[in-house]
Write a structure and sequence with these properties.
- With about 270 residues, this protein is mainly α.
- It has one domain (about 5-260): Glycerol uptake facilitator protein (Up-down Bundle), CATH 1.20.1080.
- It is about 80% helix and about 0% strand.
- The chain has helices at about 5-20, 25-55, 55-60, 65-70, 80-90, 100-125, 135-150, 150-155, 160-185, 190-205, 210-225, 230-260, 265-270.
- The protein starts with 5 loop residues before the first helix and ends with a helix.
Length: about 270
Amino acid sequence: MSALKPVEIVQTMIDVGEAKIKTGTRDLILRGTMAGIILSLAVVVAITAITQTGIGLVGALVFPVGFCILSLMGYDLLTGVFGLAPLAKFDNRPGVTWGRILRCWGYVGLGNLLGSLLVAFLVALTFTMNFSIEPGAVGQKFIAAATARTSGYEAHGMNGWITVFVKGILCNLMVCLGVIGNMSARTVAGKIAAMWLPIFIFFALVFEHAVVNMFLFPLGMMLGADFTIATWLNFNLIPTILGNLVGGLIFTCVPLYLTHAKTAPSLSSN
C-alpha cells in the first residue's frame, strides 16, 4: 500500500506532535527559520509568475513547491504546529503540557519570523539594486498586495479585522491538510501530490497565512509601501495568527483526532 489509512495518519499526527513538543530549542528555531526562508522564496516565485502571466491561478499552481520542499526536509511552520502539537496533550502523552506546547509554538514562530525577515531584506536588495533604484514590476506587485491587505482592511475597521480572521481560519484548514498530506503517503511523489492540492486552494483563494505574511508585508515596507508596522500587526498579522490557530486546530486536526483516534476501530477503519 502506498497510502496510509486515516486511522494510521492520525496516529502519525499524534506522534509527530509529541516529537515537535519535545524538540530542543535550537532545532525548533533552526527548523522554523529554514521553513520561513523556503516559503518566502516560494512567494517570490508565485508573485513573479502572476506578474509575468497576469493570471493568479498560475501563481497558485507554482507556490506549493516551497511548502513541499520544506515539509520533505522536516522543517516547521507555525501553522502546522498549531494543529499537531495539542494532539499529544489530548492523547495524554507523558511529559506533554500546555506550557511546552506554547514553547513549541513560540520558538517555531520566532524562527519563521527570522527566516522571513532575512529573505525580505535580501529580496528587497535584489529588487532595488542594493536600494539604489525603484523596484520593477514584481516589486510593485508586492507593494500593491501588501498595501491592499493592510490599509485596505484597516479602512473597514472591525469588519476588516474579522475578515482577516476568517480568512486565517480558512487558510489553515487547508494548510494543515497539506501538512497531514505529507504523512498520508509512503512515496515522495504521493506526498507531493497530497500536499500540493490543499496548498494550491489556499493560495488561489487569497487566504491569510501567518508565515507568508511575515514575509510579504515587511518586504512591502522595505520597497516603499505606505503603511505602518502597527497597521500590519493589528489588521493582518494578529488576526491571521488567531485565525490560523482556530482553523488548523479546531477545523482540521481535532475532527480527524475525534473520529479516527477516539472512535471504535470497527467504525473508523473504512
